[in-house]
Design a protein that fits this description.
It is a peripheral membrane protein. The chain is an all-alpha fold. About 60% of the residues lie in helices and about 0% in strands. It has a domain at about 75-140.
Length: about 150
């Protein structure tokens, strides 16, 4: 059928299988070993006596070109300026609210006066109409009695 020779039993001998196992060992890399840790000094005790000068924040002296010196933290002057500006803004807002409240109060007073005036005129007209009605009844009964 084909011109290629077919493998025989001699090709699959134990010697050839041991050669393949050697090839398998060559594929696997050796297992790396972890390097030994360097020795370190002890950090000492973390307990500080209560009367020690080591208690509290340690002042740091930073150079001007140090990144920590260029931190966006605010100084006490900045905080005072911000507080003053906030208080001024609150005072302006409070004044504006008081002025608007005063305008509303004045408008309420004007509407109340207008209401009282219209109420008095309404009462006057009701009394006038009532008087006219009673007068017309009197004249109507009097004119009937004459006829």
């Amino acid at each position: 059928m084909s011109d290629e020779p077919t493998p025989t039993r001699d090709d699959q001998s134990p010697a050839s299988s041991s050669a393949s196992s050697i090839d398998d060992h060559e594929i696997h890399a050796p297992v790396p070993k972890r390097p030994a840790l360097p020795s370190r000094k002890s950090s000492g005790t973390l307990i500080v006596p209560s009367g020690s000068a080591q208690i509290g924040p340690v002042p740091q002296h930073l150079q001007p070109d140090d990144a920590r010196a260029m931190s966006p933290r605010r100084t006490s002057e900045d905080l005072e300026n911000m507080g003053r500006q906030a208080r001024e803004e609150l005072h302006r807002h409070a004044r504006a609210l008081q002025e608007s409240l005063l305008l509303i109060f004045n408008r309420i007073e004007a509407v109340k006066e207008e209401h009282d005036k219209l109420d008095n005129n309404n009462k006057f007209l009701q009394k006038y109409i009532g008087d006219l009605m009673s007068t017309s009844k009197i004249t109507a009964t009097a004119s009937r009695g004459r006829k």
